[in-house]
Structures are given as C-alpha cells and as structure tokens.
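Course assignment 3, question 2. Fill in each field.
Student: A.L.
Task: Predict the tertiary structure for the chain below.
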Amino acid sequence: MKQKIIDAYAKLSLDYEKNVDTESGFNAFYERPAMLEQLPENMTGLTALDAGCAAGWYTEQLLNRGASVTAIDLSAEMIAATRRRREKLRTPHDPSAFSHHPR
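Answer field:
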C-alpha cells in the first residue's frame, strides 16, 4: 500500500508543483491563510520542520519569515520540487535541509 502512495505522488508531482498554488481555491483562500495567521511574522532564529513538504509552499513561507527549515517528504519528486522552489529564493541554504524519507 505504501509503495502505491509513493508511486502516485511521483506521478502527480509535476502537475501538483505547477498548479497547486494557483488552481486550488481551498489552499489559496482558506487553508494557507489560516495556517500562516497562526505563525509569527518574524521567525528569525527559529527552526521549523515542514513534514510532508510536498512542493515546498510552506517551506518557502517559513524561509521568507526567517526560519531555518528542514523539509522532508516520502516523495523524492516532491523534495525535488521543494528544492526548485527554494532555489528561486536565492538565499544560502544547507543542502541537507531537504530530505527524502521513504520509510
């Protein structure tokens, strides 16, 4: 069962990466704003874990607020998407902060 889930995310990852930020009204207007409202605006000096990071939207938000972020996911493809999003920020990072954990 677990392998089927990993395989499904591998197949969906590119579409998810390209469309989830703009095509999902639930994410854009409800879930994400509500979650960000719970976090401090300035997270400088704090460390955050983005478990199940998917395409890295929360990773990006946490980094933009100054946090040091460790992002993990079962899907190697989603970690790759998170890395691509992170590279667009053009700030130094520790490559070990993005991990694929297949267990």
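Instructor remarks: Residues 2-100 form a domain with the Rossmann fold fold (CATH 3.40.50.150). Residues 42 and 65 are 5 Å apart (CA to CA).
Grade: pending
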